[in-house]
Amino acid sequence: MAVIDYCISRRDEKYGVCRWDEHYNTSRGWCQSCDPFEMTQTWTSESIDVDDCIKEFQFMATEYDKVIEWIPFDRLNNIQQIGKGGFGEVFSANWIDGKRKVLNDGKGFIQSRTKSYLVALKTLSSSSNSMDFLKEFKNHMRCRLMGSSLEVYGLTKNTITNQYMIVFQYANNGNLRHYLETNFKELTWKDKLLRLMDISKDLSLIHEAKYIHCDLHSGNIVLHKEGSWIERLKTYIIDLGLSRKNEGTPEFYVEFSELCMNFDPQKRPTAEEIFHKLEEWYNLINEFDETENYDDTQELDRFEFDEIDEIDESKVEMFNKFLESDEIVKQLPMAMKIHQDSEYTRKFINTDIISERYWEDSKMN
Ligand SMILES: [Zn+2]
């Protein structure tokens, strides 16, 4: 019986010949029908949940150098702490095996690896509970699949502390806070705009994946430079683990917040308009709360149109959306709530240093 080749339309001579079968690859050095299967057979993290999670993303990979993997802890050395925050610790490490890389050996594309490679490791905030920790990791991966540019290489487990860690691209220029503190005077508008474009691009991809970051600040925006050109400096958003699916947030609220962030300032509402919109929503909730005269200890029921037919239906719908959203937020994992006390969130851009520098600059000019 002939087997249907679902990938036939993507096979192309220019990608080289599959390692496992006599057909062409579906991308450079990668065969979508053979490689994911082969890739998932030869390793185990010794946790079925972790194995399943990694394999799920291995099956989704469409390019060899974007495949994540289980990285045994003994394949990492020279581990040094480079950061610590409310969400966990960050380390730099040398990955002995190097990251995946597609090579052209003259005859075609082949699967290869770099030499040993500098990577970053980050403990995940809830790695003591494997299920919550995997949720965080999946958030990272889904944003990555949508095009978020920070490279993710896989997962490892510190065999001494038993903590799982995400292995990702090491950013050699540190975080944005540090970068601004040390380079502020040298930064031109061209540099600043490039950084802002990178950040907004990454953020828009996260939003496109229907996630919201929840904790964006200069401590979790990192910079990486390849070579000496300033144009080669790339900015990335990290700490996607606490991002959450934009589920539950009422659509009209999302639309309004997007309007507030419109690229064209002329299209953004004024502070006064924002105040009035928020006041309108607040009053609406208040009005319905009083109508219902609800008791916090009781289960809240959705308003039914027939109960209050004298009230505008669209207002009822709006109120119900707020109510549903409140319920969804109550179900969120604890990790979402921890960050309010975290040391990390308090480390916003050091405005004292910046205003001091503006002051110095203005004195000089
Ligand atoms: Zn194949």
Biggest sheet features: 6 strands, mixed
CATH superfamily of the largest domain: Phosphorylase Kinase, domain 1
User: How many distinct helices?
Assistant: 11
Q: How much of the sequence is in beta strands?
A: 15-25%
Overall geometry: globular
Number of strands: 12
Radius of gyration: 25 Å
Structure described in brief:
InterPro entries: Kinase-like_dom_sf, Prot_kinase_dom, Ser-Thr/Tyr_kinase_cat_dom, Ser/Thr_Kinases-Pseudokinases. The chain has 365 residues and is an alpha+beta fold.
Tell me what the structure shows.
The protein has 365 residues and is an alpha+beta fold. It folds into three domains: 8-169, 2-Layer Sandwich (Phosphorylase Kinase, domain 1), CATH 3.30.200; 171-246, Orthogonal Bundle (Transferase(Phosphotransferase), domain 1); 251-333, no CATH class. Helix content is 37%, strand content 17%. It has eleven helices and twelve strands. The chain has helices at residues 35-39, 48-60, 130-145, 176-183, 189-208, 251-260, 271-292, 313-330, 335-338, 343-346, 351-364; strands at residues 69-70, 76-85, 88-95, 100-104, 109-113, 117-123, 152-157, 164-169, 211-212, 221-225, 233-237, 244-245. The strands form four sheets. A six-stranded mixed sheet has the order 1-7-8-6-3-2. It has a two-stranded antiparallel sheet with strand order 4-5. The protein has a two-stranded antiparallel ribbon with strand order 9-12. Helix 2 packs parallel to helix 3 and helix 7 crosses helix 8 (313-330). The protein is globular. Residues 18, 20-21, 23, 31, 33-34 line the site of zinc ion. Zinc ion binds at residues 18, 20-21, 23, 31, 33-34.
